[in-house]
Structure prediction request, 241 residues.
Amino acid sequence: MAEILRIRNLRKTFGDNKVLKGIDFSLSQGEKVVVLGPSGSGKSTFLRCINRIEEPTSGEIYLHNILVTDKNITKIRQKVGMVFQHFNLIKNLTVTENLILAPVKLKLLSEPEALKKAYKLLKHIGLLSKKDAYPASLSGGQKQRIAIIRAMMMNPEILLFDEPTSALDPESIGDVLELIHEVADQGMTIIIVTHEMNFAKEIASRIVFIDEGKIIEEGTPKVFFNNPQTPRVQEFLKKVL
Prediction:
């Protein structure tokens, strides 16, 4: 598989707090990487640095061997979609307006093309009836599924998911995980931070464990869960499984 993303010595500091302490990471086309680790370990900051929502303190990020810089970040963000914990839908726009805003504004699609694609995706997830609704009238699960297809509207090469079910009630979690599974099965390259261990086992081609701002261990789900190599991961799995 061809390498899409490469990260070298990524560091992020907030004041005196060193959150990321030199992360090296690569991602190949079609991979499904699940990032695990305790709260506060730097998992979300790692994702947010990839498409520069957070500005790295130092380090290099390459997409298709092209260094991500201030000059090309807009183009990079078109290729790297992100789904957040709290949906981030624009409150004063309808569902349809939320979906078509970015691809039309960035001239990736004409408005008729964007509307056609938006309605097709809404129909696919069973929410076409909500096309003219505002986010405030939707459940958490509905908002998150719409946030996922909003990311898909940009036809990204990589999708980043930052704990996409952490703000949802138990009933909605299954619907959202099912949609992520479907997106993964279609061949999308994915990095997902999650606390859903069974889901991680099912979807991941590789598990990456981050603790105290560093990658401590990585491997296939089978090896990671059945034969963890480091005492830190053994301790973590003992608590969460």
Remarks:
- The domain at 3-240 is CATH 3.40.50.300 (Rossmann fold).
- The chain has a mean pLDDT of 95.
- Residues 44 and 198 are 20 Å apart (CA to CA).
